[in-house]
Design a protein that fits this description.
Layout lengths: L1 E3 H4 L9 H10 L3 E8 L2 E7 L10 H12 L22 E4 L7 E8 L8 H10 L6 H13 L3 E5 L7 E6 L5 E3 L5 E3 L5 E4 L4 E4 L3 E2 L12 E7 L2 H11 L4 H8 L5 H17 L2 E2 L4 E4 L14 E4 H8 L5 H10 L3 E5 L3 E5 L10 H12 L19 H15 L3 E2 L5 E2 L1 H4 L9 E2 L16 E2 L4 H13 L7 E11 L2 E13 L3 H15 L5 E5 L5 H4 E11 L2 E9 L1 H6 L7 E6 H7 L15 E10 L4 H12 L3 E11 L2 H4 L3 E10 L8 H19 L2 E2 L2
Parallel strand pairs: 4-7, 19-23
Antiparallel strand pairs: 1-3, 2-3, 5-13, 5-14, 5-15, 6-13, 7-10, 8-9, 10-11, 11-12, 16-18, 17-18, 20-22, 21-22, 23-24, 24-28, 25-26, 26-27, 27-28, 29-31, 29-32, 30-31
Helix pairs in contact: 4-5, 5-8, 6-7, 10-11, 12-15, 19-21
Length: about 675
Amino acid sequence: MIVSTDWLADYVELPKSIEDLTERLTLAGLNLEEFHAVGDDTAIDLEVTSNRPDCLGHIGVAREIAVLFGAKLKKPQPQPAGRGRSTETQTSVTVSCPDLCPRYTARLIKGVKIGPSPAWLQDRLKTLGVATINNVVDVTNYVMMEIGQPLHAFDFAKLQGGKIIVRKAVADEPFMAINHKEYKLTGDEVVIADANRPVALGGVMGGADTEVSDATVDVLIEAADFAPLAIRAAARRHALHSPSSYRFERGVDPESIDWASRRCCELILELAGGELQEGVIDVNHQPNERTFDEGRDHIKLRWPSIERLLGIAIPADDVRKILTDLGCTETHNCDKCVKVVPPTWRADLSRECDLIEEVARIYGYDKIPAATTLPIFPSAKRREDVVLDQVRAVLIGAGFDEAYTLSAVEPELADAFAPWSGAVGVSGSLSTGMAVLRRANVLRQSVVPSLLACRRTNETLSNPVVELFEIAKVYLPREGQLPAEKRVLALSSGGGYLEMKGVIEGLVAAIAPAAELTVAPARGPDEGALLDGGRSAGYLLGGIPLCLFGEVSKAGRERFDLRGASSVAELDLGVLVAAAELVRTTKPLSNYPPVSRDLNIVVDEVTPWAAIETAARKAGGELVEQIAFTDDTFRDAKQLGEGKKSVVFRVQLRSTAGTLTSDQADAVMGRIVAALEGELGGKLRA
């Protein structure tokens, strides 16, 4: 923001030294870029952060100077006299998109005489690097640079139907901007239209069809407020950045809209003549009150909080004076706290810490000793954060890369995989300004489809290795309530079922080594469509469902246009976090050799390996060190009988007290065989 010292002097008494002025502004947060002379004036270039749009005008900077140097702010109070007919009888304003344009005001001046601006106005705009056009257009730019509120002047005679309609653009609608370039609108922009066509791109740029020219006699003055996100999206989409869009993107002071309109009309009457028509059209959909974090109409500042955050004590009277000088209205004061309502031009003030920051920068950061000790207390990571760090470390070590995808997806993606529940719809407002989301209308119920879409993209780019994981939330519907949010871990790999199984087991072993991990049949309403029914399964952790995983079926690969094989998994991180062992314990290793025995058990075909392992481990007791499936399963109806299978596995025994004898090992194996016979109907095969 470039400001003129001559211009600032209209509102506040400046210090004699430009160096003192710029240094104090810099220490208070308005960093100096540079300053230089422009004729008899001096241009100061200040860096204004995005949370301080109030300083995008000379009055805002002058207000800062007045507070910093204890001076008085002299703000004009425009009261232009309306002498003509009522404005409402000569024109109208209709706002059909109040979410994009919460307020629009219009005043009408008739009989102006267009000509060059006086030297003083031209000189001030020249100091800022703003080109001069004519007295009416220059006044709109002048007032914008004065208060930070953009304005626009229409040639009233060129408004077809003599009316203003604020609406959303129509897709592929043409718009001829004031730079005499035509733009094709997408339908997401807000436009100012007359009865038949757009005459301005709201908050961004005026139109060539209604621009003020030497032949203009009557002008309609617009002062409005537009939704920052919509203005930013339109400016970027069409590469039409302007001083107006820059200010609307950051938000304007709602109380300055009418002030700017009156100030603009006052200066036009002074410099271009004409007659202001009686009254103003003010279509206002803005909320009457601001909402603060505390849920009340004020912010509480507790006196002890100042020393706790800054490390120094500041007298209460000084604090109160700083806040009131900044424009805050005090509503309460006692020996414990002060309560204030911030001014409308400071929308960034909503919390106690915001007020403390204001007190610190005005009081002076240089008054805070470098050796000040702050009462800082050590903090620890949340349990969930510790576990997620471990998850990332294990998966990155296994060759996976972390992905980040959007939570809103196309309905066909949401329907592809639903291990937890059904999809939740989202409103169109979530996709405003984001082309990729305009087609989306559901919040995802699973992250797996998003990772498979990433896999497809990587395959089209000939990336040979696509091992991805993502930690994100899914959204599960609840009747009559907001959706339940579940944090999950999704995996996508080019490996097969066994490789994915190994990754999951390695992850659980690293995070919850003592937890019991058991395999369960694949479940979920849609796994048959996406996963191969014969190469998919679930896992229970401590008896609680942990995940669903498996290889993507042929139909699933076709649905996602995948060229190669893939396996996927989705884990409930809440279950993993609950079972995690954050503090590990150790026990001494046995100094004695192990004893291994193989068992060949005939069981029913439907008996899963998990049941065999569980029964064997329970019967073997503490001497069982390891039970390993040998991948040797035999089926023969003639030898074993119908519906039977023979499973071979190895049991490794070890004692910490001494070397096991054959009799001791045989006794343990006998208990295991007895348990398998009694619990599973198994039979030892010779």
